[in-house]
Amino acid sequence: MPAHRTSDEERAASVTHLLALEAAGTPLTSPRLKTVAAAHGCSSKSVERWLKRARDNDGHYQRKQREATEVTERMEDELIRWCGNISSAHQALTDDGILTLSYSAFYRAVIRTYPRSYLDGLRGGEKARRRHDLHGSNRHRGRRNDAWEADHKEADVWVNVNGTARKPWLTLFVNCSNDGICGWAVTPHTPNSQAIIVALHHAVQRGGPHGPFGGVPTLIRVDRGTDFLSDAVHQAMGILDIDRVDLPPRRPDLKPYVESLNKSFKNMLFRGMPGYTECPSPDTTAESKPAPIEDLLTFERFTAEVRQFVHRWNHKHRVRNLGKRTPLEVWKADQTVIHDPPPAALRRFLPFVRRTFTITGTGIEWAGRHYLETWMRNLGGVRVRLRHLPGYFDTVEVYDATSDKYYGTARWTNAASTHLMRRVRETNAADAARLRKAAKRRPKIVAERFAATAESAPPRLLTTLTTEQARQHLHDTRDTDPLATPRPADENLPEPTGSWTNTRPPQPPADTDDNLPAPTPSWITPSTPPANEPEDTP
Fold first, then answer.
1. CA angle 97, 99, 101 (to 5 degrees)
2. C-alpha span between 328 and 345 (Å, rounded)
3. Helix 73-81, helix 86-95: angle, nearest 10
4. Which of 64-73, 159-168, 268-277 shows the lowest mean pLDDT across its residues?
């Protein structure tokens, strides 16, 4: 007998052969049926049942179908209520007397009716359902600067940022034709539109520290993050005539090159750094708990490591999908014309400061910062506007407030020293630590603690004070209650005499007869007369 169960195709072939012999006049003897049954690992009676079903079905073999159970709307509602838990839904339907099927029959009906992606979505939400989506291979790469992709990536490593453990964020711009990193920026916190503008400002420039990659792309694909959709980013791309393509939400497959680069940063850079968040550890909370601050990389060192990785990726790393070539080799092999932005466009690329300023003898003052340059001579009293790279206040670009004429670049002259800024940060950190300590103490002060119980009873407050302590507390509270303490103006007042003027008219004496019945409102009609009055007779 075979070690495994034969398939329906194999059974259909045997049945077709036996029916052909029968049609040719060859008798289907018992030894012949036993030989076929032995090949399929069943009895000869099973073979006879196959033949009978085939004769009833015009000579075609078909497996006997079980009577299918249809999933009703009530069954589906119960399945949705239990978030895809088939066992709990079956138990609830059975307890309500709605379902008489066994669990296995109900399970088969659910599996047959709903796809696996729908059931996983009920259990784990949209993220679990998307695991079953099918995606094609990478899109057509095109030529250099035909298309870029941009995205944010949270670093999987803790970094020492001025004495605090943080996970920085990377903003990346990738050239789709060669996987080259055109521009990048690192922020110690969640990035915003400023990080995008800084990274794009570096991405469109070439030469020197920017490397050979750059120029103005035709389009940039971005997700629907609010920072990418901001007016500042839209204006910056519009000045350079870059088409921004907004991809649908939760579709990383539509920007595969930058998503692949995010994984490369994790596998090729972050895994080897101290403070990696996914290191194997016996402590189950090690992933969310940072390492000691002295063991982490400083933010300056982390940024330097990222810069070295970008250079190694662009110039030395060989990408399998590029035919084992580096991004630089693919870039040089492409002879497409590169459009470099003119300096005036790069200056216009920077956002304006919202207010206007006046050039004085000390230059331009903005938020306590003084900007001065030699070209400001003979321009005293002129109203100007400023442009600057977000987050960078060392230099500003100065334009006339009326004619929008460009004057030049001005530099910050009164910046605080590094030592002074360190002392300011230490003072701020001490204040923040004192506030955090007070916030941790408050729940312990105001929280009420109750006794555990296994019975259906009202919660019982745990007694933490003795009788004497409780009475002393009430006495102290009464003594310090501002409502209970007499005001100084009301203390030791003399009793009123007849010579005093009373501003209120004299009131009639109050009725002290307690036996009088209370007045009955006019809208109430008593159903029975009072007990002390005789009932009227007609």
1. 135
2. 27
3. 120
4. 64-73
Query: Pairing state of beta strands 395-400 and 406-412?
Result: antiparallel
What are the tens digits of pLDDT across the range 291-316?
Answer: 888 889 999 999 999 999 999 999 99
pTM over 0.85: no
Burial class for 20, CB neighbours closer than 10 Å (0-12, 13-18, 19+): exposed
Radius of gyration of the chain (CA): 42
Residue 473's pLDDT is: 73
Two tokens at 11? 């059974």
Query: Two tokens at 115?
Result: 């796809």
Element (H, E) at 312: helix 299-315
Rounded distance between C-alpha atoms, residue 105 and residue 103, angstroms: 5
**488 contact partners, CB below 8 Å, separation of at least 6:** none
Model confidence pLDDT, tens digit, residues 318-369: 998 888 999 999 999 999 999 998 888 888 778 788 889 999 888 898 888 8
Q: How far is C-alpha 92 from the geometric centre of its chain's CA atoms?
A: 34
Residue 363 φ/ψ region, left for φ over 0, alpha for ψ in the -120 to 50 degree band, beta for the rest:
left
Sheet strands side by side (includes 159-161): 164-166, 159-161, 297-298
